[in-house]
């Protein structure tokens, strides 16, 4: 697996998370984000379960442009 770094949240202060990457092999988006609180988890559970191998994370709205860029990169990576 080769991850292509897209962006980190510019407002983290310590330059840590949230972060967005694209997997060059299969064009999956790989996201690092904030752990959500119990209220958010409960609201998400209203639409279905969250399997143990999955997690709900929060990405700040200021990273929308980074997510768009990641989607563009992923779309260009997909072999048709």
Polypeptide structure, described:
The chain is an alpha+beta fold. The chain contains 2 helices and 5 strands, in the order ββββαβα. The chain has helices at residues 38-45, 64-77; strands at residues 3-8, 19-23, 29-32, 34-35, 57-58. It has a 3-stranded antiparallel beta sheet, covered by helices on one side. A two-stranded antiparallel ribbon has the order 4-5. 11% of the residues are buried. Residues 1-20 are annotated as: Disordered.
Strand order of the largest sheet: 1-2-3
> Low-confidence segments, ≥5 residues, pLDDT <50?
none
Query: What class would the helix/strand composition place it in?
Result: alpha+beta
What is the helix fraction of residues, given as a range? 25-40%
> What best-fitting shape do the alpha-carbon axes yield?
globular
Described by strand count, sense and barrel closure, the largest sheet is: 3 strands, antiparallel
Region (Disordered): 1-20
Give a topology summary.
Blueprint: E1 3-8, E2 19-23, E3 29-32, E4 34-35, H1 38-45, E5 57-58, H2 64-77
Antiparallel strand pairs: 1-2, 2-3, 4-5
Region (Disordered): 1-20
What key phrases describe this protein's structure?
80 residues; 5 strands; alpha+beta; two-stranded antiparallel ribbon; 2 helices; three-stranded antiparallel β-sheet
